[in-house]
Amino acid sequence: QMSLVESGGGLVQPGGSLGLSCAAAGSTLDWYAVAWFRQAPGKERERVSCISASGSSTNYADSVKGRFTISRDNAKNTAYLQMNSLKPEDTAVYYCAVAGFCTDYGNEYVYWGQGTQVTVSS
pLDDT tier at 56 (50, 70, 90 boundaries)? Predict the structure, then answer.
């Protein structure tokens, strides 16, 4: 059984930056792809980014490409999402989740964190 805990959310002004962390406990992240999802009120959940188990492959939603960077440190059993040039439309609860491979289908992800709120506002 794996537990995932996100941290690093908060309030930031437009154009600012935030770094999110996803720490795993109870099992190793080594064999899992890690994805970040987000969900804003009244909107569908969106997969923001995903990184393969090896870290050699990453992908991003068009809405965040060039602004967000996903990474992982398997030695620390932690994944990260660096968010730059934040916009008000990035406001959402951000979740990390793990699966055997990167996929758009949420039901393929076997473990989820509880989420961390990111609010972009002046």
Answer: very high
